Amino acid sequence: MTVPVLTRRQLNRAILARQMLLARERAPAIEVVERLVGMQAQVPTDPYTGLWSRIEGFDPGELSRAIEDRRAVRMVMLMRTTIHLVSARNALEIRPLIQPVVERQWRYSPFARALAGLDVDEVVAAGLKLLAERPQTAGAIGKRLAERWPDRDPASLGYAVRWLVPLVQVPPRGLWGRGGQPVLETAERWLGKPLVSQPSIDDLVLRYLAAFGPASVKDVGVWSWLTGLGEVIERLRPRLRTFRDEAGRELFDLPDAPMPDAGVPAPVRLLPEFDNLLLSHDDRTRMGDPAFRGRPWWHGSLLVDGFLAGTWRQERRNDGMTLRIGTYRPLTDAELADVGAEASDLLGFLAPDGANDVAIAELGEAA
Predict the structure, then answer these.
(1) What is the number of other CB atoms lying within 10 angstroms of the CB of residue 171?
(2) Are the CB atoms for 270 and 302 separated by under 8 Å?
(3) Short-list 179, 342, 349, CA closest to 270
(4) What is the per-residue pLDDT across 15-66, written as a single tens digit (0 to 9) for each?
(5) Cβ-based neighbours of 24, under 8 Å, separated by 6 or more
(6) Which phi and psi angles does 316 have, rounded to 5°?
(7) Is the pTM of this model over 0.90?
(8) How far apart (Å, rounded) are the C-alpha atoms in residues 282 and 224?
(9) For the segment 221-250, what is each residue's pLDDT rounded down to a tens digit?
(10) What's the CA gap between 202 and 235, in Å, rounded?
């Protein structure tokens, strides 16, 4: 049987549909976070901007309340060992699957080298005793541990606990319009439930395909940093639909996943700095032109006609905010108008009470 070949544009429209970027949808924030299998969140406001781009009438207070109520958490080491905002349920399910990745990355980290010869399990146990007293930052943990191991780097001692223990950042960190230090607590104590003892890697891969497919085995690995995924895909193959891309790579997908026509219009979108849409594939041409590599990068991503067309940043002033957009290619008058309108709306979300303006200019090839 002939395997269908998907064009770059077909792949683009497929992922935009699954990421709720062809049209904003009305849905609870926590439901969208789960549908996206979490949102990368080193920048605390990024998930809010990402949800604003996907949810019709998004209320940032809804997400803040979910974090305060412990229905959503900022987990410290998740996919690609980065901070992700996830639902409480997903935190308990996904984090045990990522533990081997965390331990592997720890072994090659400068912090592990700084603790060479030390029993790291003993360090972690001591750190857990400190956390049982109260939630605290990795820096504070490291300073306390350095009292016991004074010849060791305090930051590395603290990072041993931060890396190897399933931890979350507790509010007010990550709340809308507020802020705070990255204070840590164990996921199990904060959520009042144990980590799932036998989580399903098959389910995680299926959820990835639902949010990011069609995708290759390498794509799943880039998103998660998990290994042994070829075996997982082979086990799932009878349940999946297969394709090829224009380069001949084998792609896998759920049989009932959305596959819009390549000609479906895609609206302008402004995504945050670390949006998983642009970080979760080995082959990223479905989202951007390789010719744009090396162009200046500011903060977030500008999508025009569904593809990466530039970058943006917010610049605060005493009386308001400027949203500055740099484009990677000339835009038509109609495209410029759409970009300006979306940027103005985003400014209204980020800084509703200021004197705001939008500045758009084409960027050269050098920073």
Answers:
(1) 18
(2) yes
(3) 342
(4) 999 999 999 999 999 999 999 999 999 999 999 999 999 999 999 999 999 9
(5) 53, 54, 55, 56
(6) -80, 140
(7) yes
(8) 11
(9) 999 999 999 999 999 999 999 999 999 999
(10) 8
Structural domains of the chain sorted by starting position, each given as residue range(s) with its CATH number in brackets: 5-191 (no CATH), 288-362 (3.30.70)
Write phi, then psi, for 74 (nearest 5 degrees). -95, 100
Q: Evaluate whether 87 touches 30 at the Cβ level (below 8 Å).
A: yes
Burial class of residue 26 (count of CB atoms within 10 Å of its CB; 0-12, 13-18, 19+): exposed
Distance CA 36, CA 54 (A): 11
- The full length of the chain comes to 367
- Please answer whether residues 325 and 31 qualify as being in contact, where contact means their C-beta atoms are separated by less than 8 angstroms: no
3 state SS of 167: strand
Question: How far, in Å, are 41, 62, 125, 240 from residue 175 at the CA level?
Answer: 12, 10, 30, 39
**Peptide bond just before 182 cis, omega within 30 deg:** no
Q: Which residue is listed with tokens 């300006």?
A: 340
Amino acid at 92: L
Phi-psi category of residue 289: left, alpha or beta, with phi > 0 → left and psi -120 to 50 → alpha: beta
Tokens, residue 87: 């639902």
Sign of CA dihedral 133, 136, 141, 143: negative
